[in-house]
Please model this.
Amino acid sequence: MKIYDQDESYSILDFSDMDVKDIMDLKISLVDALSCYVEGYKFMPQYRAGTFDGKKYFFDVLPDGNMRIPKGLVQSIIKLFRKHITEEYQPLRKPEYVSTEEIEQFVETLDLPFPPRSYQIEAVVKTINDARKICVMCTSSGKSMTIYILLRYFMSKGMKGILIVPNVGLVEQMFGDFKEYNFKNIDDFVHVIYAGKDKNFDKPITVTTWQSGMRMHEDNFAGLDYVFIDEAHLAKGDSLTALINASKNCLYKVGFTGTLPKVHADRFTLSATLGKSEKIITAQGLIDLGFATPVSIISMYLNYPEEEKKIVKKLKYQQEVKYIEEHYRRNNFIAKLAVHSTKMYGNTLLLYNTLSHGEFLLKLVLQNKFGLSNVQVLEKITKMRLEKALELDPEKLFTLTPLTPKDKKLITKYMSKEEMEEKFDTLSNYNIFIIKGDIDGETRNKIRALIEAVDDAILIASFGTVSTGVSIKRLHNIFLCSSTASSIRLLQSVGRGMRQHKDKSVVRLFDFIDDFSKKLKNGKMQNKNHVLKHSFNRLDDYIEQGFPIKEKEVDI
Model:
């Protein structure tokens, strides 16, 4: 078997120098090596009907009987089938070799505001020399600085390319980071593409989102030398396939991520597109080097009465989640602990999944902070919302922002000015904030800036709004108020607190684990509930990252 490149996206497995019998035997093994089961295939109607075998295949059979595979899988095939290869594989183009000393000298010309770390230099050198790579760099390790050095190096060599990020917010954040790194005349060299922006690659560096990038015609990619993907774990299979087809001339295809997907098919797809992954730096490695705040995991096992265990035993997953999110004693315990932890240690972030849960937590935090039993929160002052809130006869009404003259005019139709001043208050007066999906990026940045200036803030936010791109250094406590089975979401949440600040020596992560299982005399568990099973995945992640873990039990 011979292997050669069709282009920079695909390679050919050529069997023309083999006997027919040997070809058949080898192809059977290759099909197995170049396929994997997709997640949940056993539950798919097509699989149950016998029309789908549950596998995703990473090859095409060509009319001449040869096989075409994504170039990212070539090295794996060489390693697995070395004895069948009759000629040494020669890539279509070889990447330029650079030494660490050369990159260090180049970095000195960039006038960076602070020197890059040794592992960032290592990542740059390996990326240039390997051409295809997935760099696994934990949150807070400085991916944007690493990417910036690479982009500037390629620009110095006359190359042109694209950096793809998950969303518009990160396009702007990356552009802002580059400015902070002293990229002079940045507008002459960097173009950003998202809704409403011109879709062209006229400048050496283009930063765009997946959505905008995939809408561009394949011909737009013809003149590019490299494609970089930030937060590569978020890339979907169809998008990656489209990227392979579009970037056939790009020698350099590189991904950056904090953690790889646990689903084998997703990991396989990333490797097929971008090549092998390499762990550059882990969270604990960053801490050991003194570049990140130490993390302390506090696993809070919440034990429930027997009668409630019997109820939850019969519930499906979504029903169980709803039961937990609406459970007063459970969420009130979390809110009370959040108020106490903020007072004792500093700023606290409460993470939730559903909006209704976040709003419930906000009310309970307010009640515990002010010793009240009935509070209401109004996002906006409208006649309907105000009347509905007043019907509940609250002791206190909180608004997200200060009352406007228009708000006050409406409120004084229902009460005197003195009553309004006594009953109404603003969350931000007490450094309490909530971030939801509909809050714009500018408002989020204002909240982040306010939190950085105080040490008694409580931020209630959805996992989705802080999983990427939200950086708060002055963060002392993180509460996982909702269960998650996603390693990526979990480690990004931990990373929110690892950023260093002069006023903190450790970040505490409180993982609330709802245990409705039955304990047997031999110490084993029976009837493990859904979210309890999720906690086992998180425990594996904590151990893999090397985080110290404390376990506590609380009766709810």
Notes: The chain has a mean pLDDT of 90. The two ends are 65 Å apart (CA to CA). The domain at 2-84 is CATH 3.30.780.20 (Translation Initiation Factor Eif1).
